[in-house]
Amino acid sequence: MKKFGVILLLVIMSFNVFAAKTIVVGSKMFTEGYVIANMISLLLKDAGFKVEEQFGLTSFPLRAAIENGQVDIYSEYTGTAWAAYFKQKKNIYDPYELFNEVAKLDYEKNKIVWINMIPFNDTYAMAVRNEFAEKNNIRTLSDLAKFVNNGNKVIFGVNPEFYERADGFFAMANAYNMNVPKKYVKTMEAGLTYEAVSAGKIDVAMVYSTDAKLLKYNLTVLKDDKSFFPLYNPAVLVREEVLNKYPEIKEILKPLTLYLNENIIIRLNYLVDVKGMEPEIVAKNYLKGLGLIK
Prior knowledge:
Layout: H1 2-19, E1 22-28, H2 31-46, E2 50-57, H3 59-67, E3 73-77, H4 78-85, H5 95-110, E4 112-117, E5 124-129, H6 130-136, H7 141-149, E6 156-158, H8 160-164, H9 169-175, E7 185-187, H10 192-198, E8 204-208, H11 213-216, E9 219-221, E10 234-239, H12 240-245, H13 249-252, H14 255-259, H15 262-273, H16 279-289
Parallel strand pairs: 1-2, 6-7, 6-8
Antiparallel strand pairs: 3-10, 4-10, 5-8, 5-9
Helix pairs in contact: 2-16, 4-5, 15-16
């Protein structure tokens, strides 16, 4: 009888292992990627999934991993997929149109489903010190163009790639009819532009629109009111066979589209990059604070 009980217990345990809902979550190797991936992982765990994490990959290896089935789900940026993976040249300036086009291409080519877009855009931007924006009433790139064209000396800091690219700094200046002499444009590594503008060595810095350093250095991001910069909205990607097996995933991860925006992700990135907190703790505290996980 005792032997039968042991056998029965082993059968039950084997069934539970077999029945466990297992999913592999991937992430890119930068702060924002880790924060979002941890949110995906935590929401799925809270819903009863067993999650395996493949974190800290660069874009192309992560892309290959979802295409060959090594990763089931991760967050990707619309602009990255459009230009880097699908080699599209056409510029689309409506975020929902771009999302729909990318989602259509990825499903047709790879049977990968793009779940609802997360409503923030992590793209290039131009930023100034808060006091500079207040003093000169500059809130948009059009405001900046008017200020520059009125004869004010304005020093810009951009990274070498953005300086040299055909669709980079001078294309942006041309789009806004901003007359900037080349001698007023300094090149430096992207991370140094924040420190340089904060210290007053330059007046306008090329930045990334969700970088934690925007908060650290009290910078104002100028609105791209002519939609020059490409769109990089994140969205959750999942392999079709996984979504068919677990259709509840879409509803489980819906909070990402409801409770994340540009201001929030900047603050979450700030907690990691400036305050030194682990991405998992930041993600967990945020989701717990909203009552989304136990």
